[in-house]
Design brief:
Elements lengths: L2 E6 H9 L3 E4 L2 E5 L3 E15 L13 E3 H6 L3 E3 L2 E4 L2 E13 L7 H24 L1
Antiparallel strand pairs: 1-8, 2-3, 3-4, 4-5, 4-8, 6-7, 7-8
Length: 130
């Protein structure tokens, strides 16, 4: 599975209320420019280190799942993550993992179009020779 997108908690609530996202447990159907079918995992986007602006851990502007944060022996406290003596402001949200194909992905459309053309060509050849 590959990660598709990070969606903040606030944006996810908007998507659900607007009918753009349907969630069932950890499964999601997300209709944006493309329609994604995927799995959700709780995640955090690291905004800034409030203790050390130099970011010695390289966490700022990155997304980490809750499991990855726990593996760092970090504590999650509301909109903050504490790792050792560093305290990060974070935005809570979700990572969407791809589950199968995106429904309207351009490469999928091209592939399906090519398959249809190949099938049509095969049928026409066999009809003419049969």
């Amino acid at each position: 599975m590959s990660v598709i997108i990070f969606i903040s908690q606030e944006q996810m609530e908007k998507y659900v209320n607007d009918g753009v996202a349907d969630i069932n447990g950890n499964d999601i159907v997300l209709r944006l420019e493309k329609t994604y079918i995927g799995n959700l995992e709780e995640a955090y986007y690291f905004l800034r280190n409030v203790v050390n602006p130099s970011d010695p851990r390289g966490m700022i502007n990155r997304v980490f799942t809750k499991g990855e944060i726990k593996d760092l022996n970090a504590d999650i406290m509301q909109n903050s993550v504490i790792i050792g003596e560093d305290v990060y402001d974070v935005e809570e949200g979700f990572v969407v993992y791809e589950q199968g194909n995106t429904l309207t992905d351009e490469s999928t459309k091209k592939s399906q179009t090519q398959e249809i053309k190949s099938l049509a060509s095969f049928i026409l050849k066999n009809l003419k020779s049969g």
